[in-house]
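Closing statement on the NDP sub-project.
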Amino acid sequence: MSFKNKVAIVTGASSGIGAATAVAFSLQGAKVVMVGRNEAKLTKVAAKCSKPLVILADVTKDADVKRIVDETIKKFGQIDILVNNAGLLRNGGLIENDIMPAYDAIMNVNVRGVVNLTSLASQHLAKTKGNVVNISSAAAFLTPMVPGSLSYYISKAAINHFGACAAAELAPQGIRVNTVSPGPVKTDFFENGGIDIKYEDFEKMVALGRVSESEEIADVVLFLASDKAKGITGSNFLADNGMVIKR
Ligand code: NDP
């Protein structure tokens, strides 16, 4: 898969799946735009990419989202691929009465940020007949394993349907929109979200008895973003080691 002369924006490129995706695009010749808030982490990942554009931005802030598109166009003149990967997990259960702060924080990153950036990027994607890949989760097909994480599950279910609706709306412009739904992946995601769970626990929950590396998810993203997937839009690829079939 060659992405030579393609411009790929990856949100949440400072760690985990987003970092692996940015590096993979760069290795395949893309001009990569790396978005995140943590400058130190972004700089570390950027060192593994060829001349990336690093944009410090918070996808929940409208001005930042606009700046992601503006700075990309200023530097590279076009957008071919948008990977909406930035995501947040935070505890907040129905019964503890503290659900709304977690709900708002999660929906703002996982849904609002995705809708906002996709919308602003779409006029540029129309010019290149580009595509969007959203990172959802196998969680969207399930109910929570850990009490208090239902806002996350709701957000990923919303992003699944956003992917289908956006694919339908943008198809006449030649823009494809697809979704990848990982199961457990070895990143800092759960620790960052205050969820105390071990990978050995996850291994017992999935049919294949293993947990993915970020690079495996990046491979699926690159396939969907490539011309090999030119006939694929509105799809949702489970990359979950058989978590959904086992549950
Ligand atoms: P990480 O915690 O390693 O990465 C999350 C990324 O999101 C970071 O780069 C972070 O960057 C970025 N981010 C969070 N909030 C914002 C924000 N407001 N603005 C901009 N960037 C933000 O987790 P993963 O790599 O695991 O997660 C990536 C995606 O994969 C998420 O959407 C997650 O829901 C999904 N996923 C992960 C699974 C897993 O098991 N790890 C399973 C299923 C889905 P920074 O801190 O620099 O802002």
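The longest helix spans residues 99-128. With this model delivered, the sub-project is considered complete and its resources will be redirected to Aim 3.
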